[in-house]
């Protein structure tokens, strides 16, 4: 399965996907890495791996649809079959999301539907929850919403600070993002009635 990975920043989840795709037998490959920020540090991981890199700076476009048309065209041009949002910090409009419906996934650093949006770890610590985690889900027009593919639970420890907790959750992100991509790529799941279901076994 050909992946298009969209990033805006650090790119540690991109790096996890690169490593997974370099594992013999992994059923996906990265066809293109696209950043909306020209200086995203994560672009270095892509360059080191020799992957095609495209920068589409949203500031170069007058409207969101114009930016998203360019994004779409670039994904198409690279033969992308599954879009992986990996710290991509632009909200995507309905038209774009619907064009990639059930073919675009995101990773979010909380156990959705809890803690949508930003500052998830600060809010979890503020609430005193004892377990948090991360979620890979299909993307829907509402932010951090959509059928859940995979989650990992991560304990909140007594001395945690937002950075400590973020680092622990990030390790789990790096495990489940490739695992979720594998499930999609192997055709193990389908979306039905708004939920991810196991695909009927092939007999
Ligand atoms: C991750 O915590 C991810 O869950 C969130 O943004 C962060 C991106 O980190 N959506 P990185 O750029 O993959 O290192």
Fold topology:
Blueprint: E1 2-7, H1 12-21, E2 29-35, H2 43-48, E3 53-55, H3 64-77, E4 82-85, H4 94-99, E5 104-108, H5 120-127, E6 131-138, E7 148-155, H6 162-185, E8 189-192, E9 195-198
Parallel strand pairs: 1-2, 1-4, 2-3, 4-5
Antiparallel strand pairs: 5-6, 6-7, 8-9
Helix pairs in contact: 1-6
Describe the protein in words:
By secondary structure, the protein is of the alpha/beta class. The protein has a single domain (2-198), classed as Rossmann fold (3-Layer(aba) Sandwich). It has helices spanning 12-21, 43-48, 64-77, 94-99, 120-127, 162-185; strands spanning 2-7, 29-35, 53-55, 82-85, 104-108, 131-138, 148-155, 189-192, 195-198. It has a seven-stranded mixed beta sheet, with helices on both faces. Helix 1 runs parallel beside helix 6 (162-185). The longest helix is centred in the last third of the chain and has 24 residues, at 162-185. The protein is globular and about 50 Å long.
